[in-house]
Design a protein that fits this description.
Helix Hairpins; five-stranded antiparallel β-sheet; alpha+beta; about 475 residues; five-stranded mixed β-sheet; about 55% helix; Heat Shock Protein 90; 10 helices; Beta-Lactamase
Length: about 475
């Protein structure tokens, strides 16, 4: 059995997408923090020193005397009040460092891209981020100093170390990464728990379905206590198993019943045929032929029921509609059962007002409906009992009621008697599909079948058929 398919797809699809999102979030946050720190460092420089203030300070020192400019540079460095935050360099117009607030000598070969960019910038400022000669990460910003003619006199260069900011950036990045890992772990654990809460019940359902497919209709899925779709699916599978088991039992009972129904007339036919063959008795021959004809009719009716049921199952049961007077067809069906009522000692009550009930219907199918219901009424009614047929027009329907004083139907069996193969009383002959066919025929005619019964007292079958007075009979 293949396992973990849903879990693998969840990991490949959902978890991988979440991982990508968290990576993007982590990288974006890292870039944002770094950019924020560097902008904050530049903002610190801008908030402490302004170009106009630098130019104003050096206005008294910018002339042709380089010594005077150097003196001004030392004075500026000594009076600079933010040495604890940044270093300040003063360079001449050739890029030579005249003084450094750090007190260290500066190699003349030191690159100063910020100074170079400031010389050509309209604002007279330039910024550079990189590493100095000692490998330290720095942010440098140069402010150009001009003389009275606007010519380059030198520059003040402010330098902020980025090492601490970079370390802080790494700490925050690792912290965010840690949070992302925790979030991913929580999503993975909760997701796997959720997926398994689906996969495991589905696995049990799958195993149970295989058992049912192999014929074990007693197999059941252990339903969870949670009121969700999985629990509902488990209950549905269990219900399906129960229904299949019931249908299988009904089917087996049907096969047994039909086999018995076929065997009985065949035995009678064979027995009487052998009797006629072996004995030359006119009276016995006549009686035997009557039995053979009767049992042949019985076989014919069983075969007809089976054929009708086969059509119903395959969806091939159709009707050939024509103008029909339903009351006339009911008269014809009742007339057939008068002799039977006398033979079996059953009182036949037939009360129908002088009405017509035109509708577009299949004449043969309507006769079959009445014949099947009447046959059931007589089958389940003992000698001395009564079968009554009533009909009346009610609104747009013809309502036909056939009541008997037979054995009745139990409350448990009553909801199932129109189901295929179902037979409420196994002691009485019949295939158990007659009412299923009747119900299907009535539905084809847009009618309705209603059955009410009390066990031990009898049954009332009511048929509702829509009539159409615009039809000419």
């Amino acid at each position: 059995m293949r396992t973990g398919g849903i879990t693998r797809r969840w990991i490949m699809n959902t978890l991988s997408v979440i991982l990508i999102i968290l990576v993007v979030v982590n990288v974006s946050a890292s870039v944002f923090i770094k950019s924020y720190y560097y902008e904050m460092a530049e903002s610190t420089i801008d908030s402490k020193v302004q170009k106009t203030a630098v130019q104003t300070f050096f206005n008294n020192y910018v002339n042709s005397d380089s010594n005077l400019f150097a003196e001004g540079a030392r004075e500026f460095a000594e009076s600079f009040g933010y040495s604890y935050l940044m270093d300040v360099w003063v360079v001449d117009k050739g890029g030579n460092v005249l003084v450094s607030s750090a007190g260290f000598s500066v190699d003349d070969s030191t690159v100063m891209p910020d100074f170079d960019s400031a010389k050509v910038a309209e604002t007279g400022t330039g910024t550079w981020t990189g590493r100095n000669s000692r490998g330290e990460k720095i942010l440098a910003k140069a402010f150009i100093i001009t003389d009275s003619d606007g010519s380059l006199a030198g520059a003040v260069r402010l330098i902020v170390s980025l090492e601490d900011l970079d370390r802080q950036h790494v700490v925050y990045t690792l912290f965010i990464m840690f949070l992302c890992i925790i979030a991913l772990a929580l999503v993975a654990v909760s997701g796997l728990f959720f997926v398994r809460s689906i996969v495991r019940p589905v696995g049990r359902i799958n195993e149970t379905a295989k058992l049912i497919a192999k014929g074990d209709f007693n197999a059941r899925v252990e339903s969870s206590n949670s009121n969700d779709e999985i629990s509902e699916l488990c209950d549905t599978v269990n219900y399906m198993s129960e229904e299949i088991a019931r249908s299988d039992k009904v089917k087996n009972d049907f096969i047994s019943t039909v086999s018995h129904e076929l065997r009985t007339p065949l035995t009678a036919i064979k027995g009487w045929a052998e009797t006629i063959r072996d004995f030359d008795d006119a009276e016995m021959t006549a009686k035997g032929i009557d039995v053979i004809i009767s049992e042949t009719d019985r076989l014919y009716n069983i075969v007809e029921d089976l054929l009708d049921f086969s059509k119903m199952q395959s969806g091939r049961m159709t009707m050939r509609a024509e103008p029909v007077d339903i009351v006339h067809e009911l008269d014809s069906a009742v007339e057939v059962f008068r002799d039977r009522a006398k033979r079996e000692g059953i009182t036949l009550v037939y009360s129908i007002p002088d009405i017509t009930a035109p509708m577009s219907a299949d004449r043969n199918l309507i006769k079959q409906v009445f014949a099947n219901i009447l046959d059931n009424a007589f089958k389940y009614t003992q000698s001395g009992g009564r079968v009554a047929i009533f009909a009346e027009r009610c609104g747009g329907d013809l309502v036909v009621s056939i009541a008997d004083t037979g054995c009745g139907i139990s409350k448990e069996d009553l909801p199932h008697i129109t189901e295929k193969f179902y037979k409420a009383n196994m002691s009485v002959r019949g295939s158990g599909i007659g009412l299923a066919v009747v119900d299907e025929i009535i539905k084809l005619h847009n009618g309705k079948l209603d059955i009410a019964s009390t066990q031990g007292k009898g049954t009332v079958v009511t048929i509702f058929l829509p009539i159409d007075d615009t039809i000419n009979i």
